[in-house]
Specification:
193 residues; mainly alpha; 12 helices
């Protein structure tokens, strides 16, 4: 591949293959460089950018990881997984900031809203966390795990009716955690149904 690139073959697919080889061999800087070239020339796979950032971070170079993810987002601002990867590079406060930027860029992403909810909750912002989880559930009502997470927040806040409303429709196909939470909610309410 190096020879193909040196001889003038400079299409995005060739750069992407070179990036993958460099990343697989542990060459984070060379892999990131090839990822950048692949994106400059054409549409490269966002997983490649995530892999390059992961390897750079593993090598202790968070700056390089941030660079490749930010660069990817300039070309693909709707790449939710890239946003989520970028959010995980720093501590909780920065994570929340990046995820707020992500939901601004990809407002219809239930995953981004869910991650923002988790980040806000980690910073003890229960109101903001619940609001983000509600948005995630509105965008993707089939995400039962979000309903359970939201019910848990209502349960912890003492809003048993809201927790029960979220959990009862899930009872038939719920996880063991959801069943335990529903039992706790109903037990506190004194409702054996």
């Amino acid at each position: 591949l190096e020879t193909a690139i040196e001889s003038g073959r400079r299409d995005a697919a060739t750069w992407a293959r070179l990036a993958r080889l460099r990343l697989d061999s542990g060459d984070a800087a060379g892999g990131v460089q090839a990822v950048e070239r692949a994106f400059l020339i054409g549409d490269a796979d966002t997983q490649l950018a995530l892999d390059a950032a992961g390897l750079a971070q593993k090598a202790g170079n968070a700056k390089l990881a941030r660079q490749v993810l930010r660069s990817t987002l300039t070309r693909k601002p709707d790449a939710v997984m890239v946003w989520l990867g970028l959010a995980k590079l720093d501590g909780p406060a920065k994570e929340k900031e990046v995820l707020e930027e992500a939901v601004g860029s990809v407002p219809k992403s239930a995953e981004a809203w869910r991650a923002l909810g988790h980040a806000r909750l980690a910073l003890e912002d229960a109101k903001g966390g619940v609001a983000a989880l509600k948005t995630a559930l509105e965008l993707a009502p089939a995400m039962s795990e979000v309903a359970v997470e939201l019910a848990e927040q209502h349960f912890q806040a003492g809003d048993l009716d809201a927790a029960a409303r979220l959990l009862k429709p899930l009872a038939a196909g719920a996880t063991a955690h959801a069943h335990r939470l529903l039992a706790a909610v109903l037990g506190k309410k004194g409702d054996a149904r």
